[in-house]
Design a protein that fits this description.
368 residues, ten-stranded mixed beta sheet, alpha/beta, single chain, 39% helix
Length: 368
């Protein structure tokens, strides 16, 4: 597939996340943001920042989104914890205004876009009615974070989580669950299974925990064992496993190195854009180009940080370029290779492809 084809195919999808504030009602011991950004040290909620976001959105995206294309724009809103019981109702009013005005900006910039809304929550709240109200108001999806190890410190938190997930499902809200693939979580799942409907599961496969909590880092063996467990026990149809398996079964080629091309994270401190089809001058492969706009959307830097070259070296070390599965591999090991907290072993995705290839009945069951 030519690079121009990749741009045409993927550049109309925008995955945009807004971290409205850092205030959180949990202190997950594996949380990387505590170490890297100190967000748990900042419990202040700034309504002025939320009010400024629609203008920042216009500054950032005006003339950067092609209005003649049917763009797909996913708007995800998160904290901290947006729905914590100690958040005043007045701040919820700010949510409504901010999200409505942000949506209007995108409707103005790209009138024919399909815009969707997602709320990300840890699910630990008692004031459930105001949560249902805002999620229904925007016809939004809601994603509940859950981890078997390292998240909940009291039993009441798990009880609230379960109650709130069930309440959203009974209210016909599109409800998802996000699991962090840390080593303790993988070990728990392999021993005990997953007590959720598999259609609810979203797996965060590339999470990097705090550097000083190495017991949370999964090895290549851990990841392979988890992928294999999902195929054997969940009919493989959860989004992460589907991403791995479907291109192989369908023959779809994914010669690009990362599937998402318009990833934005808005934070009071910065705006990060990851554009994975940017071509770095020091490498002939796509690389992560980051644009830092600073507070309130003023462009202060625009550079390529040459991660593409580092990623290319990592792929070479693993023998990816000569691997027979490379042409349809989703190449999901971006973070794993770049951070390199532990020695790279045999590629877990390659091992999954070999596992599938050896079993014709498995291939037939999976639709191949």
């Amino acid at each position: 597939m030519e690079m121009n084809g990749i741009r045409t195919q993927y550049n109309n999808f925008f995955d945009i996340r807004f971290q409205l504030f850092e205030h959180c009602n949990l202190s997950c011991k594996f949380c990387s943001e505590t170490e890297f950004m100190g967000i748990r040290n900042n419990q202040y909620i700034d309504p002025e920042y939320m009010r400024s976001l629609p203008g920042i959105v216009f500054h950032t995206f005006n003339n950067k989104i092609d209005p003649s294309v049917d763009n797909i724009i996913s708007l995800c809103f998160m904290g901290g914890e947006l729905f914590s019981d100690d958040i005043p109702d007045e701040i919820f009013d700010e949510y409504y205004r901010t999200i409505t005005d942000i949506t209007k900006q995108f409707e103005q910039i790209s009138p024919d876009s399909k815009i969707s809304h997602i709320f990300l929550t840890n699910g630990v709240y008692r004031k459930y009615q105001r949560v249902l109200d805002i999620v229904n108001h925007f016809s939004a999806k809601i994603t509940f974070s859950y981890d078997f190890v390292g998240r909940f410190t009291s039993n009441y938190q798990k009880v609230l989580w379960n109650k709130n997930v069930q309440t959203c499902m009974r209210s016909n809200i599109d409800t998802r669950i996000s699991l962090v693939l840390s080593k303790p979580n993988i070990n728990y799942i392999l021993s005990n299974g997953i007590p959720f409907d598999r259609n609810l599961i979203i797996v965060t496969h590339d999470y990097v925990p705090r550097l000083d909590y190495h017991e949370y880092l999964p090895s290549d063996d851990d990841l392979f064992n988890f992928y294999k467990w999902c195929i054997d026990h969940l009919e493989y149809k959860i989004p992460l496993i589907d991403t791995i398996v479907s291109p192989m079964l369908s023959g779809e080629l994914t010669d690009n190195y990362c599937m998402t091309t318009n990833d934005y994270i808005f934070n009071k401190k910065y705006i990060n854009k990851y554009n994975s089809t940017h071509i770095c001058q020091c490498s002939d492969i796509p690389c992560s180009a980051e644009e830092y706009y600073g507070n309130y959307g003023h462009l202060i830097d625009n550079h390529c940080n040459c991660l593409g070259k580092k990623y290319e070296i990592g792929l070479q070390k693993r023998g990816c370029f000569t691997c027979e599965h490379f042409k349809y591999c989703p190449k999901m090991c971006w973070t794993q290779i770049l951070f390199q907290h532990y020695p790279l072993g045999e590629c877990p995705i390659k091992r999954i492809y070999e596992y599938i290839s050896r079993d014709s009945e498995l291939i037939s069951r999976m639709g191949g």
